[in-house]
Amino acid sequence: MKNLLPILVCLVMLACKEQKTDKSNETMAVETTDTPQQWLTFEGSDKNAKHVVLISGDEEYRSEESMPQLAKILSKHHGFNCTVLFAQDPAKPGIVDANYVKNIPGLEALGNADLMIIATRFRALPDNQMKHIDDYLKAGKPVIGLRTATHAFNFKKDDVSNYKHYGNSYRGDKTEWTGGFGRLILGEHWVSHHGHHKHQSTKGIVVEEGKESGIVNGISDGDVWASADVYEVRLPLPGDAQPIILGKVMNRKGEFDENDIFYGMRPTDDEVAKTNNGKDVGPPFMPVAWTKSYQIPGGKKGKAFTSTAFSAVDFTIEGTRRLVVNAVYWALNMTVPEKTKVDLVGTYNPTTYEFRKDEYWDQKQLKVSDFK
Description:
By secondary structure, this protein is α/β, with parallel strands linked by helices. The protein contains six helices and twelve strands. The chain has helices at 4-34, 63-78, 127-138, 180-186, 318-331, 358-364, and strands at 39-42, 51-55, 81-85, 115-118, 143-146, 200-206, 225-226, 242-251, 275-276, 279-280, 286-294, 302-307. The strands form two sheets. Strands 1-3-2-4-5-12-11-8-6-7 form a ten-stranded mixed β-sheet. Strands 9-10 form a two-stranded antiparallel ribbon. Strand 2, helix 2 (63-78) and strand 3 (81-85) form a beta-alpha-beta unit. 49% of the residues are buried.
């Protein structure tokens, strides 16, 4: 009996320990449930489907609105698993704040991503977040950059960061990174507005040499349209960049209307612009969508697609949606359908592209979960 006593004591102690562990796990589960939703996930056809991570975070073109809709289209119509990330003040988790440039939680999702779609503008993310992006690019995985992704990052001179070379204005010792992420990965960084902002639109013209990619399947001249004006790029684009769509600058036919989502511009506007405040915007037309390969120092080779003809309101245009969805298939080395399904999913009421004051976001209290 004496020999059994130590064994009984040990069994009691183990039982108590397991009970404490169970209670601890219960507490963690409660805390996780109570934590505000900081990113969105949309399940595709099955758990083994390709995983697409969509990164929003720009102050102007409402990527916090377009990225969830794009994810819904990709998951519902095409079976991809999608994760959508948002800019947020860490003091207010789960509340979208497009003006907060130093935090996009959930970037660790890139660890098992098959494709990154990025539409950020002038972000200065902390090192622990930038590392996820850097690791992804070192692996040579595909990238799709939309509109302001050409100037996705920007670090100030006094910022403490190991990733300053990602910044749009980088001109440092790492000469391969001159022009930052935009130039090295996508093919161009921020240059200027080529068309007249909010007054001249973009009409997409299909490039014959780009048809082989399949990205323009189901797309004809004029199908890709954007009220967001043509961005300027330096010609020719670097390396093996291949223009897919050229942007013809179009004059607004109707009156300017600041309350209209297109500011009075329409896809039916038929007057080709010759100048923008005296600057020649005629032929040769600027590429607004192109492909290229990339390789960061110490990394594997990957491929990228860029479209500067993009904003949340422009995503209401079927041809503009199809261009991006086709690019997803191309980026994932999948056969591009002859005519991809790009019907909008659920309610989609995007707001005008414009800069908004910090007070707007404070008052709006827009929740990540609102986009589910």
